[in-house]
Design a protein that fits this description.
By secondary structure, the protein is mainly α. It contains 18 helices and no strands. It has a single domain, classed as Growth Hormone, Chain: A, CATH 1.20.1250.
Length: 409
């Protein structure tokens, strides 16, 4: 079911809306910096006194994702029923503290626990912030607004790779975790000044928790959108975690060159791709109510063969441009698919819908992908293991296209 356009955010004015968008986007950058700093130090962890195998390295992000996945529906339910800014601030504080504690790890288990705790804080943030922004802005602007918010993904990810790699090179992997986590402990205070807007129209009845989940699971287009997001996240999670190690181990780059190169590419392509995707989704909304899904489906179909070339061709003059094109196309999906998720449900269900979609996409996506790629790498090679990524991208395109073609109820 699709929500109607709620109109401009007159309840607080444009200033409150802009402040919320600016603060939440800025903090979202640190969200992804903290999430991906571990990928920048994979090779250092492997060579460190912790003596980790590729399988263990692949399991480190799984602890985070499992906790993130399990707690997201819980925070989604809270986000539809309680004041949202304090919940978001608490999440920012928890994930930042847990990131810093990773720098004190003495073995696989202590690092695994610290990284897992990051998932609690990010679950509070990742489920509630998009729903809050959707209540600030009308449907016809939502693609561009959420694209701005999700531009923090490439910026933060790139910062995680670049800052993490450079700090690791000069001060060690422990310092990378400390520097990544510290700012968020203060930034959490900025969220407390964000106003909490009304959740959609005042005449929308609020369902019980059980009825809300039943309503969402019966929403075929929403469910398929989340499932396609799972295949997409499988690919993105595998690329994000293993690509710096791939460039260093398989393509022969130095450690700093690998992290900086991939970080810069992610930053540039993320800005371009996320902006184009959000703009196209809003632009074609007048022609199709499912324009967000069409943009996502077509972009992934185009991205799959280019990703295959990027991972299989050893010629630097070929694989670097291929990585750039593939990442532009992949990032084009970020704003549209998240806009689809919050627009396919009732306003009073949005945070719960985001939380449930997080659960679905991570169970099907980046919970299995980093350890599976690590497992396949231990038994063959990282280059061979990486070929699972373009297959997942194709699957995402198929599912989103099917969702877009469904007849409206």
């Amino acid at each position: 079911m699709s929500s109607t356009t709620e109109g401009s955010p007159s309840f607080a004015g444009a200033r409150s809306a802009r402040y919320a968008l600016g603060v939440l986007t800025f903090i979202n950058m640190f969200n992804y910096l903290d999430r991906w700093v571990v990928a920048a130090v994979v090779e250092s962890l492997k060579k460190s006194e912790l003596h980790l195998t590729d399988t263990q390295l692949g399991l480190i992000p799984v602890g985070f994702i499992v906790v993130y996945t399990v707690t997201s529906p819980l925070f989604g339910t809270f986000g539809d029923r309680a004041r949202r800014p304090p919940l978001i601030a608490l999440g920012v504080f928890i994930w930042s503290l847990a990131t810093a504690l990773g720098g004190f790890a003495r073995g696989f288990m202590s690092l695994f626990v610290a990284r897992s705790a990051v998932g609690v804080g990010e679950a509070a943030y990742g489920t509630i912030a998009p729903a809050l922004l959707a209540d600030y802005f009308p449907l016809e602007r939502r693609g561009r607004v959420l694209s701005i918010f999700f531009m923090a993904i490439p910026v933060g990810s790139a910062a995680g790779y670049i800052i993490g790699g450079l700090v690791d090179q000069h001060f060690g992997w422990r310092a990378a975790f400390w520097i990544a986590g510290a700012p968020g402990l203060l930034l959490s205070l900025l969220v407390l000044a964000v106003k909490d807007p009304p959740r959609g129209k005042s005449d929308e009845p609020r369902l019980s928790v059980a009825n809300t989940y039943r309503d969402l699971l019966r929403n075929r287009r929403y469910f398929l959108t989340a499932l396609g997001y799972g295949a997409y996240t499988f690919a993105l999670g595998g690329l994000g975690f293993w690509m710096p190690a791939f460039l260093e181990r398989v393509r022969g780059m130095s450690h700093s060159e690998a992290t900086v190169t991939f970080g810069v590419i992610t930053l540039a392509t993320g800005f371009v791709g996320t902006f184009i995707g959000g703009w196209l989704g809003d632009r074609f909304l007048r022609r199709s109510k499912q324009s967000y899904l069409w943009v996502s489906g077509i972009a992934t179909f185009l991205a799959a063969p280019v990703t295959y070339v990027a991972l299989s061709n050893p010629n630097r003059n070929v694989y670097i441009p291929a990585i750039i094109v593939a990442e532009v196309l992949i990032f084009m999906c970020t704003g549209p698919v998240n806009s689809a998720i919050v627009s396919l449900v009732k306003p009073t269900e949005r945070a719960t819908a985001v939380g449930l979609s997080v659960f679905i996409m991570h169970v099907a996506g980046d919970i299995p992908s980093p350890p599976l790629i690590g497992y396949l790498s231990d038994r063959s090679s990282l280059e061979q293991a990486f070929l699972a990524v373009p297959l997942a991208i194709v699957l995402a395109g198929v599912i989103w296209t099917v969702a877009a073609r469904l007849r409206d109820a």
